[in-house]
Specification:
single chain, 426 residues, mainly alpha, 82% helix, MFS_dom, transport, cell inner membrane, cell membrane
Length: 426
């Protein structure tokens, strides 16, 4: 009996749940940091003399994870392409989870001084390392188990982890805001989301330890197609795919972190919203994000991943032109329209993204290649997006934040025109 025949089959429900639960946990961990970087860390982990400087320093630690993510993509991608998707996904989840729980245990600036932001940055690096290895493996777990004609549909399940994780993270901060005063929240309440992630990690580990290796990777083992250094092969033999994939994901990252981190910071500091009000608006708008992901995946399976991404990127560019008019409406309904429309477009770009990136690389280097492209796009499109947008809005006005988004969309559009449509190489 061959190894492929001996391997237990993965049921569709188990595969899809395993890919979804992992990215939900990872993005929950990632987003609670993003929210705390705006609301909590500037007050507790940095000198309080200048609130603006403290906020920028906090956003710098937020950016740090995006520079760690390609490192995680290279490290976990190497083992994912050498050892297997399953074991690597478990290791990535543990790395992310332990880093998040550690943040909830850190002493603050008033207790240990400059060591507090240093430890915070170290934990944030660990978060980025884990997420750098998580996303690509989760997408491959889904797409490499997909039946013919349903690759984009399967590939959107790990993408759904983003809105679900965001919904949970925003929801828990909103609940804490409603149930405790500022004194208790800043004294200890902010730690609850970070410590609570330990429960989610245990659930994710239990699910992932029960899945079998993907059929595509098992075939690569049987055919002796594994390479010694996957990253070297990606850089030497697939540089065009890596560059095109990176820029194909650029606008997606810029859009999302403008709609979440920048919007929260600007809304609560410049537009007069309270923390509770704006979190509630974001919580309602994330529903649009979740709804459009499966719609985009269905369209991508029927009409092609490339066309789906091109159309959604054009929508991003138009939204950038309307950015100022929508975000400066001055009322809650206008802000909800702005957030809902932006996150709906985000779902349209994000739904097919994992599938189209995975299809750019052969099985033997797919984990490394897709992860690197996705996470390099994170550096270019997300790591500095909140800081750049804050500077642009403060210096030139909100319209220039929209122009920044439209410019990112133009670069993504050019990259997508270079991408070939088709089934992944084997």
């Amino acid at each position: 009996m061959t190894p492929a025949a001996a391997a237990p089959a993965n049921s569709p429900a188990r595969v899809l749940f395993a890919s979804l639960i992992g990215t939900t946990i990872e993005f929950f961990d990632f987003y609670i940091y993003a929210t705390a970087a705006v609301l909590v860390f500037p007050k507790l982990f940095f000198p309080a003399a200048d609130p603006t400087t403290a906020t920028l320093q906090s956003l710098a630690t937020f950016a740090l994870a995006f520079f760690a993510r390609p490192v995680g993509a290279a490290v976990f991608g190497h083992f994912g392409d050498r050892i297997g998707r399953k074991a690597t996904l478990v290791a990535a989840l543990l790395t992310m989870g332990l880093s998040t729980v550690a943040i909830g245990l850190l002493p603050i600036y008033d207790s240990i001084g400059i060591l507090a932001p240093a430890l915070l940055a170290l934990c944030r690096f660990g978060q980025g390392l884990g997420l750098g290895g998580e996303w690509g493996g989760a997408v491959l777990l889904a797409t490499e188990n997909a039946p013919p004609g349903k690759r984009a549909w399967y590939g959107m399940f790990p993408q759904l982890g983003a809105p679900i994780g965001f919904f949970l993270s925003t929801g828990i901060f909103l609940l804490l805001t409603d149930t405790m005063g500022d004194k208790a929240f800043f004294a200890w309440g902010w730690r609850i989301p970070f410590l609570a992630s330990a429960v989610l990690v245990f659930v994710g580990l239990w699910v992932r330890l029960r899945i079998a290796e993907t059929p595509a990777f098992q075939k690569a083992i049987d055919r002796h197609e594994r390479v010694r250094l996957p990253m070297v092969k990606v850089l030497m033999q697939h540089p065009g795919a890596l560059i095109a994939g990176t820029f194909a994901a650029l606008a997606t990252f810029v859009l999302f972190y403008l709609m979440t981190v920048f919007a929260l910071s600007w809304g609560t500091s410049k537009l007069g919203y309270s923390r509770e009000q704006f979190l509630l608006l974001q919580l309602g708008s994330v529903v649009f994000f979740a709804v459009t992901i499966p719609l985009a995946a269905l369209f991508a399976d029927r009409r092609g991943r490339r066309l789906a991404m091109i159309l959604s990127t054009l929508a991003v560019m138009v939204f950038g032109v309307l950015f100022e008019a929508l975000f400066s409406s001055g009322n809650a309904w206008g802000t909800l329209l702005f957030l809902g429309l932006g996150l709906a477009i985000m779902g349209l770009t994000y739904g097919p993204l994992g599938t189209i990136l995975s299809e750019m690389f052969p099985t033997s280097v797919r984990y490394t290649g897709a992860s690197l492209a996705f996470n390099l796009a994170g550096i270019l499109g997300a790591s500095l997006a909140p800081s750049i947008a804050t500077w642009l809005a403060s210096t030139y006005g909100l319209a220039y934040v929209g122009y920044y988004l439209s410019a990112a969309g133009a670069l993504t559009l050019i990259a997508l025109l270079m991408v070939r449509e088709g089934e992944p190489a084997v």
